[in-house]
TrEMBL record:
Protein name per UniProt: Putative MFS family arabinose efflux permease
Alphabetical UniProt keywords: Membrane, Transmembrane, Transmembrane helix
Segments passing through the bilayer: 21-45, 57-79, 86-106, 112-134, 146-169, 175-195, 233-253, 265-285, 297-316, 322-343, 355-380, 386-406
Tree of life domain: Bacteria
Entry membrane topology: Multi-pass membrane protein
C-alpha cells in the first residue's frame, strides 16, 4: 500500500505543502510551451520570409513532440532511480532556456531543432509532477489531485491564447517565447528551495532489499509483472488516443477555424474557450472519478468527447460555436488526465514514475500523430468538417482503450 507523507512532526512537513503548487506551476509552464506553436503558426504561415506551409509547420511541431516523447520515456525511469526533485529541477531549467532561444530562431529548421531539445525537458515534467502529487494526495483524493494538477496545463494554454491576442500584433511572434521563459526565473529557485524529495524514493533508496536493487537496474520490468502487462498495453493505447486529441486540437484548431471562415481573433478566442472548457472539465472529472471510480469516469469522458467533437462539424451561428467548443473542451482534454489518474492508482509506488513516464511517452506518438493528421487534412483542404469527424473516432478508440485495462490486479 502506498504511504502518504502526513506526519506533521516530520522535518519535511514544512515543504510538503509546496508539492502541489510547485508541480502545478511547472505543469502550467509546460502547457504554455506546448501550446505556443498553435498560437504562432497562423502568423508564421503568412510570413513570406519563412516560406512555411502546413506540411512544413507539421514537421516543426512533430520534431518538437519527438523530443517530448524522448524526454517522457527517459525521465520517468530516471526519476525512479535518481530522485524526482533533481529531475524536476533539471527539466524545468532545460526547457525554459531552450524556449527563450526559440525567440531568436531565424528559420523553420533552427526552430525545429530548438523545439526538439526543449521537448526533452518538457516531456519529463509531467511524469515527475504526477508521481509527486499522487504520493502527497490525501487518501481517497488521488483522482481529484491529479485532475487539479492538470488544470495547470490548461491555465498555461489559456494564458498562451490570451497573450497571443495581446502580444503578437504589437511585438511579433517572438514575444510569445520570451513570455514563456520569464516565469522560470521565479519558479526554479522556489523548486530548488522548497520542493521535497519523494518520501517513497528516500525510503526505497535506503533499503538493502535485493528486489529494490533489481528494480533500480530495470524499472521497466515492473510494468509487465504481477498481472500488469495487459493494463500497461491498454494504457498506452488510451494515452495515444488522448494525446492525439490534445495536441491535434491545440495545434490546429485556430487554423481549422480560419479555414472555415473565421477571422484570426475569433479563431484564437475559440482556442481560449477550448482550454477554459478543459479547466472546467478537469475540476468536474476529478470529483466524478472520486465518487464513481476513475475507470467508468474515463470511459464516460471519452464517450462524451466523441459526441461533442462530432457536433463541432456543424457550423453554428453567433455564440453557438463557442458553446460547442466549450463542451468539447470539458470532455476531450480531461479524458486523457483521467488516464493518468488511473495509472497513478493502479501501479505500486516503486513503479509509478516509470508507468506514468511510459504512458506519457508512448502517448506522445499520438501527440505527434495529431498535428500530422490536422496538417494533412488542412493541406488537402478538408480539415473542416472532416477533421472533427476524425477526432471523434479517435475519442471513441480512447474509450475502448480504457475499457481494455480491465480491473486492477490485487496488490499488497
Amino acid at each position: 500500500m502506498t504511504t502518504r507523507q502526513t506526519d506533521s512532526a516530520s522535518p519535511r512537513a514544512a515543504t510538503a505543502g509546496w508539492v502541489r503548487p510547485l508541480c502545478w506551476s511547472a505543469v502550467a509552464l509546460e502547457g504554455f510551451d506546448l501550446v505556443v506553436l498553435g498560437v504562432v503558426l497562423p502568423v508564421l504561415l503568412r510570413d513570406p520570409s519563412w516560406d512555411l506551409d502546413p506540411a512544413g509547420a507539421s514537421v516543426v511541431v512533430t520534431v518538437g513532440l519527438l523530443g517530448v516523447m524522448v524526454g517522457a520515456l527517459a525521465v520517468g525511469p530516471i526519476a525512479d532511480i535518481i530522485g524526482r526533485r533533481a529531475t524536476m529541477i533539471a527539466t524545468v531549467a532545460g526547457f525554459s532556456v531552450l524556449t527563450l532561444a526559440c525567440a531568436f530562431a531565424p528559420n523553420p529548421e533552427v526552430l525545429g531543432v530548438l523545439r526538439f531539445l526543449a521537448g526533452i525537458g518538457l516531456g519529463g515534467v509531467l511524469p515527475v509532477a504526477l508521481a509527486l502529487v499522487a504520493e502527497y494526495a490525501p487518501a481517497g483524493k488521488g483522482s481529484s489531485a491529479t485532475t487539479i494538477l492538470m488544470t495547470g496545463y490548461h491555465v498555461g494554454a489559456v494564458l498562451t491564447a490570451l497573450l497571443g491576442i495581446l502580444l503578437i500584433g504589437p511585438l511579433g511572434w517572438q514575444a510569445m517565447f520570451v513570455a514563456g521563459a520569464i516565469p522560470a526565473v521565479i519558479l526554479l529557485p522556489l523548486i530548488i528551495m522548497r520542493l521535497p524529495e519523494s518520501a517513497e524514493f528516500l525510503q526505497r533508496r535506503g533499503t538493502r532489499d535485493s528486489s529494490w536493487r533489481r528494480e533500480r537496474r530495470n524499472p521497466l520490468s515492473s510494468l509487465f509483472r504481477d498481472g500488469l502487462a495487459r493494463p500497461t498495453i491498454a494504457f498506452w493505447i488510451a494515452s495515444f488516443m488522448g494525446l492525439l486529441l490534445v495536441y491535434g486540437l491545440n495545434t490546429w484548431l485556430p487554423e481549422i477555424m480560419r479555414s472555415a471562415g473565421y477571422e484570426l481573433g475569433a479563431a484564437l478566442a475559440l482556442l481560449l474557450v477550448l482550454n477554459i472548457g478543459a479547466i472546467l472539465g478537469l475540476l468536474l472529472a476529478g470529483t466524478v472519478a472520486n465518487r464513481i471510480g476513475v475507470r467508468p469516469a474515463a470511459i464516460g469522458w471519452f464517450a462524451a468527447g466523441t459526441l461533442f467533437l462530432a457536433l463541432l462539424s456543424i457550423r453554428l451561428p453567433g455564440i453557438g460555436v463557442y458553446v460547442s467548443v466549450l463542451l468539447a473542451g470539458i470532455f476531450v482534454f480531461s479524458a486523457q488526465v483521467l488516464v493518468y489518474a488511473y495509472v497513478s492508482q493502479l501501479y505500486p509506488a516503486e513503479a509509478r514514475g516509470t508507468a506514468l513516464g511510459t504512458a506519457s511517452g508512448i502517448g506522445r506518438l499520438g501527440a505527434i500523430a495529431g498535428p500530422i493528421l490536422g496538417g494533412a487534412l488542412l493541406q488537402a483542404g478538408i480539415a473542416y468538417p472532416w477533421g472533427f469527424y476524425a477526432f471523434a473516432v479517435v475519442a471513441a478508440l480512447g474509450a475502448v482503450g480504457v475499457a481494455l485495462v480491465g480491473r486492477a490486479p490485487a496488490r499488497t
